[in-house]
Amino acid sequence: MPTLLIKNASFIVSCDAHDTIYRDTDILIENGEIREIGKDLRSEGETLDGRGKIVYPGLINTHHHLYQTFSRNNPAVQNMELFDWLINLYEVWKHMDEDVVYYAALVGLADLVRHGATTVFDHHYVFNENSERFMDALFAAAKRIGVRLHASRGSMSRSKKDGGLPPDSVVQSTEKILQDSEAAVAQFHDPSRFSYRQVVLAPCSPFSVTPDLMRESARLARKLGVRLHTHLAETYDESDYVMEKENMRPLAYMETLEWTGEDVWYAHGIHLNDEELQVLSRTKTGVAHCPVSNMKLASGICRVKEMLELDIPVGLAVDGSSSNDGSNLLAEIRQAYLLHRLQSSERAPSAYEVLKIATVGGARILGRDDIGAISPGMAADLFLIDTNTLDYVGTDLDPGALPGAVGISGHTAYTIVGGNIIARAGELVTIDEERLTVEARDVWQRYMQRAGVMA
Ligand SMILES: [Zn+2]
Predict the structure, then answer these.
(1) Is 67 exposed, middle or buried (0-12, 13-18, 19+ CB in 10 A)?
(2) C-alpha 406 to ligand 1 mean position (Å)
(3) 65 alpha carbon to ligand 1 midpoint, in Å?
(4) Does residue 281 share a domain with residue 142?
(5) Long-range contact pairs involving 127-132 (C-beta distance under 8 Å, separation at least 24)
(6) Does 85 share its domain with 142?
(7) Which element (helix H / strand E) includes 7?
C-alpha cells in the first residue's frame, strides 16, 4: 500500500489520551496506519501540503438509517413527533428494495465523508419481502466509497396486530431474524484490527420488537462476539408504551432482557433519571447522542454532560435522514455544542468535549481502539480543513474547539481512510458524482412512485 506524508500541518488536533495539539508537524502514513508524527519526516510517496490546514481524527457516526436518505424533507411528516412520524413513514419504507438501500447508502455516505466521517454505523432494521440482499448492498456502497461501515442486521417482530407500531409487511418471525443474523455475521463481520466491515445485532425498539426477540438477540450477539444496539428512552410516548405493556420504565425493561453492558449502546438515551444514569455508568452501557434528530422530532435533550462525568460511553450521530434531512456530522458537532448551551453552562459540554464525543467517544461505543485519535499505530483515518479562507480568519487560537464553537462550514479539504484519500475538495475520489446523481435520483423517483408519494 502506498505511503502518504502530510507535511507541515499547521495544527494536528490528535484527540489522544493527552489531548495533544501539534503545531507545524508532519504525519507519516504507511500501510493504512499512522507510522510517525514529527518534524522533518521524509517519504518517497505522495505528499500533501499541510500548511494552513488543521488535521482532525476522522469522525465516527454512531447511529444512522442510511435508507432514510431517500425519504427526507417529506412535507407530510415535517411537524410530527416520533410515533406518528414512524406510522406514516413505514408506509413509504415498506416499498424499499435493494436498489433503494444501495443508492440511498451511497448518497448518505457521500454526505458523511465529505464532512469528515470515516467510520459509520448504519442501523438498518426494515427487512421486507425484498430484503435478502440488503446487507450486501450496504457493504457494497461503503466499499465503493472507501469508508469503514458497521452495519446492523436489525429487525422488527411486533406489528400493529400484536400491539406494535409497524405494518405486517416489515416484520419477520424471531426464528427467521435470528437465522439471518447469524448468517450476516458469518458473511460480513471482520473483527480484526483496522477492520472495514463489522456487523451489529440491532432490533429496532421496544415498540416494534417482542421481548423474546430482544432477549434472544442479546444471547446470540454474545455467542457470536458482536455488539448490540437499539433505540431507547427517546420519547415520553415510548416510556408510556413500555410502562403500559410491561409495567416498567424502558431501561428497567431492557435490564430484564440482558440488554446492559459494555457491548451495548442505545440511540438517544434522553428520558433517563438519576438512578438510570447510574445503571449505565456501572454497566458501561453507551449512548449515541443525536441532537438534530432530537430537536426535529421534539424528543428532548440528552443529559450528555452528566453522562461524561459518570464515564458513560457517549458517541455523536446524525440519526436517519428522515429526522435530520442530512448526514453532516461536522455540523452536528456545532449543533450539539449549542443545544446544551441553551440549557445552562453547567449542563453543557465544551466544544472540545463534543469533538471528542464524535471521535474517541464513537470509537469506544463501537468497541474499537484502532480509530478515533491521531497517534502512531492508529488507523490513518483523518480529515483536513483548509483555514486559508475568509471563513477562518481569526479562529486560529483554539483548533480543538473550532468545529463546535465556530463551526466548519462546507466540506473538508481531504477526508482520508486507511491512508487513502476518499474525498478531495468536497468531491468523492472513487465516484463520478454527476453520474451518481442521475442514477440515484432515478431510483428515488421509482421508489416514491411505488410508495404513492409521487405520481
Ligand atoms: Zn434512529
Answers:
(1) buried
(2) 27
(3) 6
(4) yes
(5) 127/154, 127/155, 127/156, 127/170, 127/172, 127/177, 127/180, 128/94, 128/96, 128/169, 128/170, 129/169, 130/96, 130/97, 130/98, 131/96
(6) yes
(7) strand 4-13
Domain that holds residue 26: 4-58+372-424
Q: In angstroms, what is the span from residue 199 Cα to ligand 1's centroid?
A: 17
- Residue 431: inside a domain, yes or no? no
CA 177 to ligand 1 center in whole angstroms = 19
What's the rounded Cα separation, in Å, for the pair 427 and 390? 21
pLDDT tens-place string over residues 217-250: 999 999 999 999 999 999 999 999 999 999 999 9
How many A from CA of 332 to the centre of ligand 1? Answer: 15
Q: What is the pLDDT of residues 287-301, one digit of tens each?
A: 999 999 999 999 999
* 203-219 pLDDT, tens digit each: 999 999 999 999 999 99
In a domain, 446, yes or no: no
Residues near ion ligand 1 (CB < 5 Å) are 267, 319
Strand-pair category, 420-424 with 414-417: antiparallel
Residue 443 included in any domain: no
Q: From the CA of 403, how far away is ligand 1's center (Å)?
A: 24
- 157 C-alpha to ligand 1 centroid (Å): 17
Tell me how many domains the chain contains: 2
- pLDDT tens digit string along 14-68? 999 999 999 999 999 999 999 999 999 999 999 999 999 999 999 999 999 999 9
Q: Is the pTM of this model over 0.90?
A: yes
Ligand 1 center to residue 34 CA distance, Å? Answer: 33
Cα(35) to centroid(ligand 1), Å: 36
Same domain, 11 and 134: no
Cell of 75: 412535507
Distance CA 326, CA 247 (A): 37
Angle between helices 236-246 and 82-93 (to 10 degrees): 90
Question: Cell 456545532 appears where?
Answer: 334
Residue 298: which region, alpha, beta or left (left: phi > 0; alpha: psi -120 to 50)?
left
